[in-house]
Write a structure and sequence with these properties.
Distance between the termini: 176 Å
Helix content: 10-25%
Largest sheet: 5 strands, mixed
Strand order of the largest sheet: 2-10-9-5-6
Amino acid sequence: MDIDKQMMLMGLLSAAFVSPVFAGEWKASVVKSLDALVSSCVVIPCSFTHPEGNLPTSRLRGIWHISDQRDRRIYHEDNTLVLDKFKGRTKLLGHLGQSNCTLEIIEIKDHDSGPFCFRIELTKTETVAPEKFSFVEECVDLKMLPDPPKPKLTQLKSAVQGLPSVLTCTVPHTCPSRAPKLTWSRGTADGIAEVHREIHAGNWEMQSILTFIPEDKDDHSEVICTSTFNGGKTSSETLTLNVKRRENYNHIIIPTVVGIGTAVIFAFFCLFMVKKYKARIAELQSQDGNVWNRLSRLSHRIRSNGPGPSRSEQRRSIWSRFSRRPQVDMDLNHRPGDVNSKSSCSNQKVSKPRFPSPKSQRKSCNDKGFDDGDDYMNTEDLNVYGNV
C-alpha cells in the first residue's frame, strides 16, 4: 500500500510539473457587455494569462466563436473556417504573444448580438502536445444601437466679448480603432484640440475643444457640434451663445470728454469774439457813454416835455382818494342871525374843487372878513383836504 501511494503521488507531481496546462491556470478576461452601433464598429477588449511564460505568437492561435458552439467561428486566422456572414468583418487587434486577444467587428448587423467567446490553441512541438482552451464562462453580449448617441456640448464659462471662450463637445463610443469625428459649425482647425480617452473597459469618449473669441454679433447665435461615426451615421448638438459685453467705463468717459471738449470750444469762441470786437466796444463806449448816461439823457428828455405835478399836489391827490367830502349846501360865511349875509349868498352855490388847497378855497361870499370875536366857522378850518 505504501508503494502504491508513493507511485500515485509521484505521478501527480510529474504531471503537474510536465504539463501545467492541466492544472487550469489558463484564464481569459473579456468585458461582459458592450453597446454596438448598427452599421458602425465595435472593439471587444480581451486578455488572457497562461503558465507557459513568454510564448511566441507563432505558437498561439486565437479563435472567436458564438457561445459554446466552437465550430461556429466568427474569427479564425484561416478565413475559410469563418461563418460567411462574418467573413471580412472581424480581426484581432492585439498580439497573442502579449496576451492580447482584443477583437474588432466592423459593419455591425442587427444579428451580431452574441454572445461571443474566446478560445486559445497552443500548437504542438516535439515535446509538447497541442492544447486547446475555450473560455465559455468569459463571453461578451452586444447591445444593438439603431441610432448614434448625441454629443454633449458644454460651455466652460460665460462668453465675454473680446475674451477667449472655450466650448467642449463629447461623444461616447465603443470603437476606438475607428473613432468618430467631431466637427464644428464655426472656428478653425488652429483653435480645435481633440482628446481621446477610455472611460472604462470597452467604453471610450471622443472630445473636441473649441477655443474662439466671441464678438458682439455672436450674441444669441448658435454653435453646432456634429459627430460622424464609422459607417456614416451622424448626430449633432446645438448650443446658443450668450455673449456678455466686456465691462468698461466708456459710458462715463465718452460723455465726460464730450462735455469738457464742448466747454473748451465755447470758451475759446468767447475769447475770440471779445478779442475781435474789443476795439469796437471801446469806440461805442467813448462816443455814446455807458448805459446809465443813456438812461439819464432819456429822463431829461421826458422832463423837458412839460412840468409835472408838484410833490404837494401829488400828496393831496393821493389823500383825496381816501377821503370823502360831504356835500355842503350851506353858506360858508353864514352866521346865525345874519340875514344880510344869507341873502347876499343865496344866489351862489358851493362846488367841490377838484384839487382843494388853501389858496384856491373861497374865504367868503362878499370877500369880507368876519369879526374876530364872532362865533363863526372859518373856511380854513373847513379845509380837510389841505396839507397836514
